[in-house]
Task: structure prediction
Amino acid sequence: MAGTPACNASIGIIGAGIVGVASALVLAQRGHNVSVYDPCPPGQAGASRGNAGHVAAADIFPMTRPGILRTGLTMMVRPDAPLRLPGVEKLRLAPWLMRFLAAARNQRFAASTKALLHLNREAIEETEKLLGQAGISDMMRANGVAVLHDNVRSLAAGAALWSARERAGFPSQELDHAAVARLVPGISPQFTHGRFCAHWAQVADPFALVQGLAHAAANRGVRFHRKKVLGLAADADTVRITHEGGTTIYDRAVIAAGVWSRPLAACLGETLPLVAERGYNLTFPDPGFVLDVPLVLPDRGLAITHVREGLRIGGWAEFSRSPDRPENERIFAALKRISLDIFPGLAPHDARAWMGSRPALPDSVPVISRSSTSERIFYNCGHGHYGLTQATTSAQFLAQLIEGKNPGEELRAAFSITRLQR
Ligand SMILES: Cc1cc2nc3c(=O)[nH]c(=O)nc-3n(C[C@H](O)[C@H](O)[C@H](O)COP(=O)(O)OP(=O)(O)OC[C@H]3O[C@@H](n4cnc5c(N)ncnc54)[C@H](O)[C@@H]3O)c2cc1C
Result:
């Protein structure tokens, strides 16, 4: 086995999204000598740039769950469907979808939930601590979440999951119509029911947050190289990262390139079943009211947040094997219609449109793992809907693995890449 460096290992990280940058900062704080590669400035190119900004600690469930086939099909046939599978992609995505459905079985769902709970349990506290150390505590607020419904049937449909959250240490309270109206100014009266959960936080600007962490990492000696990585390989003593401009040798390498981690895994001979779950949002610069808590509208597949730039409304899932395909303008148009239905007073002009590719694995559990082909190469990718939420705790888990500390067999296996290669 490769030596287990307690500190001072040279580590090359591929990818400067929230996951790569949080990993860089945590590893540098622990005494390692870290370099980060990305052709773009930290946080700019990937899903970390314009996401909803929720630190959704209480959301411990994978996307796939018992009954997903029926729920998914129902969602896809609606005219303003929050779930889309473009025609050209259906065949290409079939193997991934089979895995996604298999991961919905009761036992697999329970195992994935347990793994996600491990990352989420202390997500708010650990993120607060990291932001404090980076001098950017003011970028996050632990203000809870309101989950809203427009009928009692829909509220009741989520009851079992709320009970499970309560058993996991995340209690919530029911909101009646008056409470919803008080909490959410400007919202259409059709939202009559809801739940409030305190175990949730929001960031003011997801892009600025990555940049703030990168700045703190640079102050700790992390070097950022504006270069794309073309490949990597390891022998018994070193890892060679080949990038635009040459090859550099490290003790360890970490693949943290979001959805683009898949081709990097392929060059090591490993299967990483990552697809792009493309999410869309609109940010309305001047909503005319202040939203104090972030919102989730499960029936519409939407998250809503008052970020620094305005009111951000979005979510949805358009699955694709190609993260770089052009955005689907029809989705933005549908999103605008729905946004105005939810907040009738919003001015439709000037909404800023953004699409990002969530790195989606079939069981929604990220790969935080040593490579199965090299003791010196690690993965930290595949965080799907919750890379912002889980970036700090994932970085801590990664650091344990790199330092040869044993997180326990169950956890090691839960996040291992080998679980996806069967
Ligand atoms: C609409 C939407 C809303 C979301 N809302 C939330 C939310 O509220 N809360 C939450 O927790 N999560 C949310 N997410 C999910 C979250 O944004 C992602 O899970 C997270 O950003 C993934 O981070 P990452 O660092 O793994 O990947 P990315 O942010 O995609 O970064 C990957 C980086 O790797 C770089 N890269 C790629 N290939 C190479 C290469 N060969 N060499 C070097 N660099 C490379 C890219 O340039 C990019 O900078 C949302 C996502 C979307 C799309």
User: Anything to note?
Assistant: The domain at 10-48+207-273+364-420 is CATH 3.50.50.60 (FAD/NAD(P)-binding domain). The chain has a mean pLDDT of 94. The chain has 13 helices and 21 strands. Residues 85 and 319 are 5 Å apart (CA to CA).
